[in-house]
Structures are given as structure tokens and as C-alpha cells.
Write a structure and sequence with these properties.
314 residues; alpha/beta; Methionyl-tRNA Fmet Formyltransferase, Chain A, domain 2; seven-stranded mixed sheet; six-stranded antiparallel sheet; 10 helices; elongated; methionyl-tRNA formyltransferase activity; Methionyl-tRNA formyltransferase; Formyl_transferase-like_C_sf; Formyl_transf_N_sf
Length: 314
């Protein structure tokens, strides 16, 4: 069987590695184009491409998969099965109809919940306690295809998007290893998704990163965890961006209970953390990043002595 693998970020790497470890014939890999990375904007290949190159696999990186040239390249490969995992582009019908075993996708949510491009981040930001991986047949809609198999993975308060990406990538590879023999043998009984239960996890925007101190402590706690390790949350301090990379799980606070301060007011600022008034109490920031500086623990930040009790974050 000729398998074409399509994926881009670290999430997809364990699935590709599993295919190679299990001896499947991966004829080529399709990944997103190299992107500038870091402050120096160095052109950097995506993780899936790095693995493919290390394993001497042919790599295609079309800017637009829907272009006639890109479709023709894939048609020439004549894959029997296409496996995708966080590829990042929608497959056109000409490609979906190409392989005799179909196109399947390793998706980081329990479908039909959290269809779309940011299911892991949105699950955490929305306070879910359980997420998972669904393997489905791909269709023309956004993550609407029939479900083949799935597995649940719990989300703990210690998890961030980073830790959940790792957990779900490993769970997805394991589920794919268990599913492929059944699919190849024709023993799969796919289940249609109930569209009435569908929810969507749209890609994150800058507005998703801004902290609204009027929200509850739990909502802010979940927001920050869902944005780590990529962007972090942010607020404004002295009209400059002040990033928040970690905050402590909300606990009852005497200073918050007895305070009449407006949300966003700093109630305490010491090496133990920056306690900020929220809509229903307070939350303690433990890792921050002032404008023009690197991310740092609060113990390092407060030694500068520039933020004091009564400071307003907006």
C-alpha cells in the first residue's frame, strides 16, 4: 500500500514516525512551506519536513494545495491512502477522491466537538476537563467526515496547550496504529457525526490573547494555559504590552475578598507573585514578560520594583 502523509507541526510527527516504525510504505510527505522563525526571521522547515528529510522521504510543500499544479503532483504519486494530521490546508475534492482507501485525518478533539484549526487551545480555554483524538474519513466540509475511531484524554489544571499537544500527538499515533489494520482489512464501520452537537474551534486571533480582568479567575487561568507556549496572554501596563505566561490556580484570597478595587488592580506584588483583582476574586501571576524584555519569573521581575500595589492593568 502506498501511503501519502500530510502534516506540518510537532503534533503530526509521532503519527508519521509510527507509520515508518510499523513498516508502512510512505511514498512522500506533504507539508506547509518553510516559515520565518524567531527574532531574526530565519527560514525554518516545519517539524514534519525535518523528520521526512531525515528519513530520506520526498517532500512536497505547495503554497496552495488547490492549485492545478499541486493536485497534479499528488495525482502522479497514486497513493492508495492519504493520512493527514494537522496539515493546515483543506484538501480539494480531486485529492479526496483519489486514494482507493480514502483520506483519513487524525484530529485533536472528540468530534463533532471542536471542529476547526485550534481544537486543543480552545478546549483548554473553555475549561474542558476531557478532550481526545478522533480519526475520521475526510470530507469536503470542515472536519465533518464520518468517524472511524477515537480516544479520550483528560485535561488537568497543570496542563497547557503545549503539554496537551504532546499528549494528544502520542495518543493520536497510538490510535492510528490500532486503526489502520482494521481499515485495510475492511472491518471499519464509520459513524456519521451528529451535526446538531457540533462546535467550532476557530484559529486564535490577537483579541483571544488579551486578558479581560472582568472575567472570573478560572476563565483567566484557563485562557493563559490555552495560550502557552505560543503567544501567552497579555494586558496593558503603562500603555505597553505586558505578557502573562503563567498564573497560579485561583485560591481564596483575603485581600481580594476584602477589596473594593476594580478588576485589573494589583492587590499585592512580591516575590510570591502579582495578585490581580478579577471579576470574582483574584489571580496570582507567576511568570510575566514586560515590553522589550524576556519572559521571567515574578521573583525576578519584582526585584526591579517598578510595579506596586494599586497599579492598574488594562
Amino acid at each position: 500500500m502506498n501511503i501519502l502523509f500530510m502534516g506540518t507541526p510537532e503534533f503530526a510527527v509521532p503519527s508519521l514516525q509510527m507509520l515508518l516504525d510499523e513498516g508502512y510504505n510512505v511514498i512522500a510527505v506533504v507539508s506547509q512551506p518553510d516559515r520565518p522563525k524567531g527574532r531574526k526571521r530565519v527560514l525554518t522547515p516545519p517539524p514534519v519536513k525535518e523528520l521526512a528529510v531525515a528519513k530520506s522521504l520526498p517532500v512536497l510543500q505547495p503554497t496552495k494545495l488547490r492549485s492545478p499544479e499541486s493536485v497534479e503532483e499528488i495525482v502522479k504519486l497514486a497513493p492508495d491512502l492519504i493520512v493527514t494530521a494537522a496539515y493546515g490546508q483543506i484538501l480539494p475534492k480531486a485529492i479526496l477522491d483519489l486514494p482507493r482507501y480514502g483520506c483519513i485525518n487524525v484530529h485533536g478533539s472528540l468530534l463533532p466537538g471542536y471542529r476547526g484549526g485550534a481544537p486543543i487551545q480552545r478546549s483548554i480555554m473553555n475549561g474542558e476537563s476531557v478532550t481526545g483524538v478522533t480519526i475520521m474519513y475526510m470530507a469536503e466540509g470542515l472536519d465533518t467526515g464520518d468517524m472511524i475511531s477515537r480516544v479520550e484524554v483528560p485535561i488537568t489544571d497543570d496542563d497547557t496547550s503545549g503539554t496537551m499537544f504532546e499528549k494528544l500527538s502520542i495518543a493520536g499515533a497510538k490510535l492510528l496504529r490500532e486503526t489502520l489494520p482494521e481499515l485495510i482489512a475492511g472491518r471499519i464501520q464509520a459513524v456519521k457525526q451528529d451535526d446538531s452537537l457540533a462546535s467550532y474551534a476557530s484559529n486564535l486571533t490577537r483579541e483571544d490573547e488579551r486578558i479581560d480582568w472582568n472575567r472570573s479567575s478560572r476563565e483567566i487561568f484557563n485562557q493563559v494555559r490555552g495560550l502557552v507556549p505560543w503567544s501567552g496572554g497579555f494586558t496593558l501596563w503603562n500603555e505597553e504590552v505586558f505578557k502573562v505566561w503563567a498564573c497560579r490556580k485561583p485560591e481564596p484570597s483575603a485581600s481580594a475578598v476584602n477589596s473594593s478595587a476594580a478588576p485589573g488592580t494589583v492587590l499585592a506584588c512580591d516575590e510570591g507573585g502579582i495578585e490581580v483583582r478579577t471579576g470574582d476574586g483574584s489571580i496570582v501571576l507567576t511568570q510575566v514578560q514586560p515590553a522589550g524584555k524576556k519572559a521571567m519569573d515574578v521573583s525576578e521581575f519584582v526585584r526591579g520594583g517598578k510595579m506596586t500595589k494599586g497599579t492598574i492593568l488594562t
